[in-house]
TrEMBL record:
It is found in: Cell membrane; Membrane. This is Amino acid transporter. It comes from Aphanomyces euteiches. The chain crosses the membrane at residues 80-103, 124-145, 157-178, 270-296, 316-343, 355-382, 394-414, 426-448, 468-497. One of its GO terms (molecular function) is symporter activity. One of its GO terms (cellular component) is plasma membrane.
Amino acid sequence: MRNHATPGGILLYETSTAGTAQRPSEAHTIRTDFTQDQRHMPHDNAESQASDRDYPLLADNFKAATTGAFSDTTPSTLTVVSSLAILVGGLVGIGAGVGLYFLQLGPEWIKLLQLPGTLFIRALVCLVLPLVFCVMTVVVAQMAAIGRSTIMRWQTIVPFAFTSIIATVEGFVLALLFRSGFHITFATSASSSTTTTAGAAFNLTLKCANGLFLASTGNNSLACIGTDTEPAAVFRAANQTTATTGGDLSMASFMNLVVGVAKIVVPDNIFASFASGALLSIVVFAVPLGIATAAVSPQGDEPNHILVLFRQLRDIFQRMLQAILVTTPVAVAFLIASSIANFDRGYTSDTMTQLGYLFVAFLTGTLFHSLVVLPLFVLVMTRSNPFVYFHQLLPAYLFAFGSASSLATVPMMVECINRAKISRAIAHVTMPFGTPVNLNGAGIYYPLAMVFMAHVAGTGDQWTVARFVVLFILSWIGGVATAPVPNGGILYLMILWPTCFPSTPMPPSFQLLFAADFIFDRICTIVNIHGNAAVTRILADQIDETFEVQAAAHV
């Protein structure tokens, strides 16, 4: 291969003209830094001058004209782990998990079994967040440099919103169809729950960190010196509000959720967003940062040093990610084995029947959405066979099932999309953006889970039209409010229930969903990334990508 410097200072790679050399589009490895030889391409069609997978956008090297030569090494590309290896790891995990389940391991052994998989997910999330940040900044900067915002237009949001709404509608319809099959297993109702009314007085003690209780010292001060039996440590409290006495919807809870989502979109501390793993905040922050980075580009042949830094950081994170992904099959085996071995065996056959009924309803919705709705959407929008494209994504699907984390699956999904000859530039925008805001699996799951919990707990008669409307809206909003990490759905259900039933505590049926979350969460993750991959395919067909080479030459 030979390196050629363009006038903008970017080194492009072209293949050898030898007859035995393999053309870039025919290579079997995943690459990020190759462009087709422009001399052998027709020039009467501008779009044909840039392959949708071979371009310098995400791996360009710079050479400073005045400050000495600079050429970073070619970034190592992510190897897509064999589908067979991941499948074998999953099967080993299932077999080992079933065996360990009957051995009835203690909680300490379960923690040890979970450790390898937990460390794997933590390492992935640790690298994915800064990698997504750097990639988004570079992509946006290069688009802004030539005044092209093709990917960042409102039409880009439409496919995401469409798939998300359709998934929520499917889950809502299934919940209404299957709710007659859910019957009371736990004898719980709203009337049996305790609620605090205005003016009701009760005794209260406050325990301090030193193990003692807050008590009066006799000189109009308080100190942590008492025991719970001392009269001085017992306070008389009276509820002066009626916030918990309403039997209908809590508008305050609904508004708090909406405000919380808005605060995620506009963070007040980007470093706190990195620490908390708020991917949406990071993606939103990267957009104006990329635009500002392009705006301060120096004149002449001098490279944009800020953008060079982001590119180098991106390449570093990719190399580190490569080393972690090699261990994927082993990590998948531990993740699945620990989940099965930790399943609670204390449920009755009737309870398990109800859970199985929920699983059938959920599986029906996810299969219909994944095998009918999304492929039909791709077929109509692109006029191409969607299953040929989805077949290339099999390693990412298997990885998603093992990791149960949409966020951790992003790097592998991007590689698989690139292997399917879809632009990595578009995938690096749509996947990080869609991962926190377009969770199709969650949209199907939340209505089913809420109706299941209410009916099994004996509060199914409390569903009203208003509650169903709020459930639909919040299930759709859940695509943004749910963290794309393992058990993120369970955390959102803990917010969703008190919003719909503010005067009813979390029912015992929630424990069923918590115990079975290891399988529901994994299926949700597959559907989530499947929906984002479908949108990526549609946008790749609609967006003019000839700006890529131009962008690289302008930054």
